[in-house]
Write a structure and sequence with these properties.
This protein is an all-alpha fold. It has a single domain, classed as CDP-alcohol phosphotransferase transmembrane (TM) domain (Four Helix Bundle (Hemerythrin (Met), subunit A)). Helix 3 runs antiparallel to helix 6 and helix 4 packs antiparallel against helix 5. The longest helix has about 40 residues. The chain is globular and about 50 Å long.
Length: about 230
Amino acid sequence: MTDPARPIPASPAATAGAVARSMVDSVAETVADATKPVAPVPIDGRYGPSALVTPANFVTILRLVVSPLLLVLVVQHPSSWPAVLLWIGLAVTDGIDGSLARRFGTTRSGAFLDPLADKVLVLGALFALVAAGRFWWLPVAIIAVREVAISLFRTQLGRQGLAVPARTLAKAKTVVQEAAVGFALLPLTVGHPAVAAACLWFAVALTVVSGAQYLLDGRSAATTLGQRTVLD
């Protein structure tokens, strides 16, 4: 006979569901924070646009150096707490180097290294999860094609002397991509692959829409530049 005074332990499914809901709420709050206007931060001015050795670049390079360790860990142990903790640590550094760049001033090297580190980390983790059988290849391929296409387009704009800032939706899609990887790595959600899959497809939608926005913004900037050149 069951003792009514003794609490009934939660089932693994209920525990995983509670953790998934908590992570979804956390992602929603993070996305909301990413879309809020950021107050201006006083710039230190210690580093010029051509500086290479900066606090932000140090954090970015550290993320690049540690990323291969994460990828090996994901392939060998695709759902483990060490992989989750390392992933969270690397994802957090993405916000840290951005904050440092705003604090000490942006540089041309940082503008190149930061997106590179983001793509190596996120795309590397996504493909590692495909290799481990955690993700279907199609959504990952869509994300990869978009990222490569936008990178090439950004390079083309840079040759014309144009720099199109990323919209808040692009920042939100990065957060959701990172959350999808986190759900796939989390041991408590291994038995509920639909959670990670749903988050991944949501990331695909944000990735495609934000990519289209960037293309439109870039074409608009290039058209404006052409009109000014004709007038000059």
